[in-house]
Specification:
It is a single chain. The protein is of the alpha/beta class. The chain has three domains: about 250 residues, Acetylglutamate kinase-like (Carbamate kinase, 3-Layer(aba) Sandwich), CATH 3.40.1160; about 190 residues, 3-Layer(aba) Sandwich (Aldehyde Dehydrogenase, Chain A, domain 1), CATH 3.40.605.10; about 150 residues, Aldehyde Dehydrogenase, Chain A, domain 2 (3-Layer(aba) Sandwich). The protein has 24 helices and 26 strands. It has an eight-stranded mixed β-sheet with strand order 5-6-4-3-7-9-10-8, with helices on both faces. A six-stranded parallel β-sheet has the order 19-20-18-17-21-22. It has a four-stranded antiparallel β-sheet with strand order 25-12-11-26, with no helix packed on it. A hairpin with a 7-residue loop joins strand 23 and strand 24. The radius of gyration is 33 Å and the shape is globular.
């Protein structure tokens, strides 16, 4: 804890040797000394007369927050000319004599011409006001600011350079934020082609070059350049096919076409890139981002420092593989080629993958052993997650069987006609199944998920992006290699991509122009995080698996313990495992109830008592903290209900609409439960563990969805398809069907083509 002006604040451990820029965005959180350059378009209003006060206040708040974390913040700001222009215009209007105003008349007074204002005069008039504004804003956060005005000559004179350097270091030492600007009141016009003369020289002709020069002089870790565009594009923003460049590398200038500069200010994007590359060469990392967008300007600086995918990051380290955006485009192109294959060809790919899982068993298990050893040594995984991470010969054999089921059932998945209608004579409409597009599947500690999901994507003709947990890196790598080997037999290797970059899940969820559906496979926390982060991309899945088993008064003694044991103990970490056991009140203190408790004790299941159950006991187990708990381990809650109706109400109130079970021999009671419980899967006298794509005969599943649209329950091939409409006509136009037209609508249902019997 550090204190300044009696305000305590938390410091973060920040230290690194200067001399080399950060290689990845994720390292930016370690930046200690940061320069924030505010372009004219960021600081000024749209009319260029005055400051954008709301935007400026937000920037000051972010800089203050980072300063109070123990970082050393500096601001290079524009805005003096705009602020001065506003003041001078006001003064000129006020200085008009009353006589001039009377002679000109009201109508002409409105249109009174304002003389063109010289920029240096505006800067002289605006610098003091701009600084006063910064001081007032930083004071709100108990932070002191200091103004420094510089010119190009200050960097060419060795003594002045040392003085400037010493002043800045002293201000930073005292926790003061330096506000730096070119002294536009006296600065001479820049000489053409005078900048970037080697590593040690950069002409300060605008605030971009000033920020770069200062960043290198002060051995800054990070330079953030805020402008009025999202970052660097490969062609002028707004032009067709212009794409934002996520990471820019030295030498990439040839691939970029620069447009005009911003509406205000001295430098355009080309000047920013030159300055950024110069700073990068001097050991300072650079990000160019949008500081004017109303949705992101309130957190753009902090997002950059946290390593989020904002703007264009300049890096000297070029990754060996493609970017995730390139992978998504490859997956889309590969998926379209995959969808165009014959059904037999897609099935052949899946059969080949199933064979590879058994043929390459030893290599797969060896890679998995590395993952398990690393996880155990680091101690970062709980026992249930270690079980999920583990592969075995029997698991691989089961996977291969499931994949062959998918291949056999996928023959007519894509392009199947599900509706035919004759709209009019020679005008026939068909609704056919088609792939969704590009799927992003994010999974934790489940390497067996990779071939399952890959097979379902192949069968449904979808492109696939896979993001696995780092704890299963070795297993995922070899399983993805085998998947691509199988895809290669029909030339669609790129249809399934494994994301190996340091891409954060939150950043992947923002690729709404490249990804059509996100499917999370993992903990409830992972699913909730993805649902929160996804912007404009639908998410299929469930955030929790709170599954119930209700034991009715008419339950069979032989069935109860078997079903409960299987539901809870067979695989307690699964999302379809029993979490809450509901028991009818009349069964308390009966031999059946004693058998249930004895079985759970033998299986070492920790019992938590619900409020009603606890009230019946003199000495009860620990009372449950919440009836909406997914334990994912050998633990469960027991609660008492008075009737099947109350059991249904309890499930609706505390359940997650995943899987719920009734055990009873009373068919009427069972049917009431089946019809009234509003969950994706509702069973009678069967374990919750049957809620699974493989056990349902789907071959495998991409997950279990509790959504109420598109797909629900275990999601197999059908859940990865959507439809499109095909209309075949012969010179048909809508006007022919008007009141006085020559044609009439028929809307006749036509028979569907016969499905493949195989």
């Amino acid at each position: 804890i550090r204190c300044w002006s009696n305000i305590p604040f938390i410091t973060v451990p920040l230290s690194r040797a200067h001399g080399k820029s950060f290689a990845h965005r994720s390292e930016l959180k370690h930046a200690k000394r940061i320069v924030v350059k505010l372009g004219s378009a960021v600081v000024t209003r749209g009319d260029e007369c005055g400051l954008a006060l709301g935007r400026l206040a937000s920037i000051v708040e972010q800089v203050s927050m980072l300063q109070n974390q123990g970082r050393e913040m500096m601001i290079v700001t524009s805005g003096a000319v705009a602020f001065g222009k506003q003041r001078l215009r006001h003064e000129i209007l006020l200085s008009q004599s009353v006589r001039q105003a009377l002679h000109s008349g009201q109508s002409q007074l409105k249109d009174m011409a304002i003389p063109v204002l010289e920029a240096r005069a505006c800067a002289a008039a605006g610098q003091s006001g701009l600084m006063a504004l910064y001081e007032a804003m930083f004071t709100q956060y108990s932070i002191c600011a200091a103004q420094i005005l510089v010119t190009n000559l200050d960097f060419h004179d060795e003594q002045k350079r040392r003085n400037l350097n010493g002043t800045l270091h002293e201000l930073l030492r005292m926790n003061i934020v330096p506000i730096i600007n070119t002294n536009d009141a006296v600065v001479p016009p820049p000489e053409p082609n005078s900048d970037l003369q080697g590593v040690n020289v950069i002409s300060v002709k605008d605030n971009d070059s000033l920020a770069a020069r200062l960043a290198v002089e002060m051995k800054t870790d990070l330079l953030i350049v805020l402008s009025d565009v999202e970052g660097l594009f490969d062609s002028p923003p707004g032009s067709d096919d212009a794409k934002l460049i996520d990471i820019f590398y030295p030498g990439d200038q040839q691939s970029v076409t620069f447009g005009t500069k911003s509406r205000v200010g001295m430098g355009g994007m080309e000047a920013k890139v030159k300055a950024a590359l110069w700073a990068l060469q001097g050991g300072t990392s650079v990000v160019i981002a949008n500081g004017t967008h109303p949705k992101i300007s309130g957190h753009v600086i902090t997002d950059i420092v946290e390593g989020k995918k904002v703007g264009t990051f300049f890096s000297e380290v070029k990754p060996a593989g493609p970017t995730v955006e390139q992978q998504a485009e490859m997956a889309r192109a590969g998926g379209r080629t995959l969808a165009a294959l014959q059904p037999e060809q897609r099935a052949e790919i899946i059969y080949r993958l199933a064979d590879l899982l058994t043929d390459q068993r030893e290599e797969i298990l060896l890679a998995n052993k590395k993952d398990l050893e690393e996880a155990e040594n680091k101690g970062r995984l709980a026992l249930p997650l270690l079980k999920r991470l583990s592969l075995s010969t029997s698991k691989l054999n089961s996977l291969a069987i499931g994949l062959r089921q998918i291949a056999a059932s996928s023959q007519d998945s894509v392009g199947r006609v599900i509706r035919r209608t004759r709209i009019a004579k020679d005008l026939d409409l068909e609704q056919v199944t088609v792939p969704i597009g590009v799927l992003l599947v994010i999974f934790e500690s489940r390497p067996d998920c990779l071939p399952q999901v890959s097979a379902l994507a192949i069968a449904s003709g979808n492109g696939l992006l896979l993001k696995g947990g780092k704890e299963a890196a070795h297993s995922n790598q070899i399983l993805h290699h085998l998947t691509q080997e199988a895809l290669s037999i029909h030339g669609v290797r790129d249809a399934v991509q494994l994301v190996n970059t340091r891409e954060e899940v939150e950043d992947l969820c923002r690729l709404d122009k490249l990804i059509d559906l996100i499917i999370p496979r993992g903990s409830s926390q992972l699913v909730r995080n993805i649902q929160k982060a996804a912007k404009g991309i639908p998410v299929m899945g469930h955030s929790e698996g709170i599954c119930h088993v209700y034991v009715d008064t008419d339950a069979s003694v032989e069935k109860v313990t078997r079903i409960i044991r299987d539901s809870k103990c067979e695989y307690p970490a699964a999302c379809n495992a029993l979490e809450t056991l509901l028991i009818h009140r009349d069964l308390l203190r009966t031999p059946l109830f004693d058998q249930i408790i004895d079985m759970l004790r033998v299986e070492q299941v920790k019992i938590h008592a619900g409020p009603k159950f606890a009230s019946y006991l003199t000495f009860s187990p620990s009372e449950v903290k919440s009836l909406r708990t997914e334990y994912g381990d050998l633990e469960c809650c027991i609660e008492v209900v008075d009737s099947v109706q109350e059991a249904v109400e309890h499930i609706h109130k505390y359940g997650s609409s995943h899987t719920d079970v009734i055990i009873t021999e009373n068919e009427k009671t069972a049917e009431f439960f089946l019809q009234h419980v509003d969950s994706a899967c509702v069973f009678w006298n069967a374990s919750t563990r049957f809620s699974d794509g493989y056990r349902f005969g789907l071959g495998a599943e991409v997950g279990i969805s509790t959504s109420r649209i598109h797909a629900r329950g275990p999601v197999g091939i059908e859940g990865l398809l959507t439809t499109k409409w095909l209309l075949r006509g012969n010179n048909h136009v809508v006007s022919d069907f008007s009141e006085h037209g020559s044609m009439k609508y028929l809307h006749e249902s036509l028979p569907l083509p016969q499905r493949n019997a195989n």
